[in-house]
Amino acid sequence: MMSRSCADCHVDVYKQYAQSVHGKALVEAGITDVPACADCHTAHSIEHPRTIKFHLASPDICIRCHGDEKLMKRYDIPTTVATTYLADFHGVTASLSKVSDGEEKQLVVTCVDCHGVHDIRSPGLVGSEEMKAKVAGVCAGCHKDTAADFPAAWLSHFQPSLQHAPLVFFVDLLYRILIPFVIAGLILQVLLHLYRVAIRR
Length: 201
Description:
Layout: H1 2-7, H2 11-18, H3 21-27, H4 37-41, H5 52-66, H6 69-74, H7 80-87, H8 89-96, H9 111-115, H10 123-126, H11 128-142, H12 166-200
């Protein structure tokens, strides 16, 4: 197993990995679908997880599995964890960010900021309250002097629904109806105007 080969030298990192949601699945349950060392670092071009390059590339690494509908269905994990991040401000910013040689910091929040690198956490593993506290700490890194419940303004990895964020759900539904109606009205107005011009000629 590649992870145990890496553990010969990287003992502390392996211990962290073994306690993560992926490590527990691999080591304790024998599930081989989870990512191991070489899946994130690759065997011959190992990138340090604290570099800007790795930080910005981490969503792509996570989405390889978490965006795979067939794989996620096997473990009853919704692929919305990927799509909601990509649609969010932070996901869009990460997608558009480019790394330049002189940059020391990128103010972009990616998967590893909230979930960890080798010690990847999930609400199911550490509990929702601990996860909320971790996310609040990440938010406070950029959004200074914010209240402890600041992350509650974020929809997390949920799609708006009648059960979760019903107000956002209804506003989104309104826009889905209103915007096509307005565009259709504008097109109709332009066509009627052209028709009137043609008739007058």
